[in-house]
Amino acid sequence: MENKQNLLSKEKTTKQNRVWVRITAACNNKCLFCLDSDAQNWVLVKEDIVIQEISKWFKAWFENRVIISWWEASINPKFSEYIKYARELWYDRVQTVTNWNMFHSFDFCKKVVDAGLQEITFSFHWHNSTLHDYLVATPWAFNRSIKWLLNIKKYFPEVIVNIDIVVNKVNVAYLPDIVKFFMKFWVYEYDILQIIPFWRWFKEYKRKLFYNISENIEYLQKTWELSQIPWMYMWTNRFPAEAFEWYEDLIQDPRKMKSEVMWEAYLMFEEFIKSNWKIKPNCYGDACSVCFQKDYCHSYIENINTKKLDNIDTNDTIIISWEEFPSQVYEKYWDKIEDFKNKLKSFNKKLINIPKCLWWTWIYQTYNDIKQQDSLADYTYKYINNLYRIKSLNCKKCKYDKECKWIHINFIRSYGFKILEIIK
Ligand code: SF4
Ligand code: SF4
Questions:
Q1: Nearest residue CA, atom 6 of ligand 2?
Q2: Ligand 2: distance of its center to the CA of 145 in Å?
Q3: What is the CATH number of domain 4-252?
Q4: What does each C-alpha distance from 142 to 130, 154, 183, 201, 329 come to in angstroms?
Q5: Taking the domains of the chain in order of start, what are their residue ranges?
Q6: Which of 135, 292, 391, 403 is the most exposed place for a label (fewest CB within 10 A)?
Q7: Which atom in ligand 2 lies closest to the alpha carbon of residue 422?
Q8: Which-ligand-closest: CA of 269?
Q9: Which run of H or of E encompasses 330?
Q10: What is the three-class DSSP state of 264?
């Protein structure tokens, strides 16, 4: 794959110990798509809890990064003290994610930079005031923020500045222009986040904010193309993998699914699995059609209703399982598509978990074949390791599209969607 080096360098970053510490249950913007707006109660997290969180997750011998955030961390009066504490604890990198509102004073910026803040992620969702202010529902937000983006660059050039953008129906067609606009200010690191259908976003703004990936693929691909600029760093979050045809190095690490379901929503998903899907997550329903976790939740329902693969002669078959990192895929199957295909042929057995366009047997394991317990952890690990299979947008032209169970995401991350061959 052309972007192999990008993929391998990102792999190193995902091996960092990343610690997210929440210090404030409040925010001074009112973004239309706020994931957490229903949970904000204007309470500051207690100091002893914050200190405990910062120290508890630090791992000696790792590269440690703490992200002091959630919701708007900078409005907590002890923000700079927590930064200082993390630096004194030897965190390699102290970062925050912010809406900029507090950063519009030189004194504030100096205080937090002096305390040890090294990286700031600013949220911008448009490249002019009309629509940015509309999306964050805060007058003057854009003008204030852009002024301080320039000032941080001018007065604190040692601070790494990056930008996150929530992609939605209002801004998707302008996404490449938004990134190009901020490149003029020498911002070369972006976190591009797909809108997700939770809380009031979906209830109130379903028609206004949600968009169809295949109808907008042209704009997304023009944005991904910018990731090829040599000094550019682009991360993506919660997009369906098929949005990245030709740019597969941008597909999010599948292990991220673990933190999506096994942290705050743990009890809800645990109940879903333990009850054999009889008690569904409270977001289940209309929202599933635009949810990045659709395959995770719905595969469980489908798998639990599927019979086990019986009567498989293990002497005659081989299960093609994932490898944890693309570099491990390369180690096992080598790094060219032809090598991978030749390796599959060399097994000279019935292959399991490989689509029809790559091997004739076309047999897939289901969760019932591999499960050990009815627990969230068991399903999540097995989903990530085995059942997290994806297809190309072009698969809809294949005559096997409806029955196919595709291929594990790490093979697509390693070799690209072009390993799949449409069967007419
Ligand atoms: S797919 Fe799962 S997480 Fe997403 S809305 Fe449906 S039930 Fe909720
Ligand atoms: S092209 Fe797509 S739908 Fe057709 S067999 Fe391959 S993976 Fe399946």
A1: 357
A2: 46
A3: 3.20.20.70
A4: 8, 18, 16, 21, 44
A5: 4-252, 308-419
A6: 403
A7: 1
A8: 1
A9: helix 326-333
A10: coil
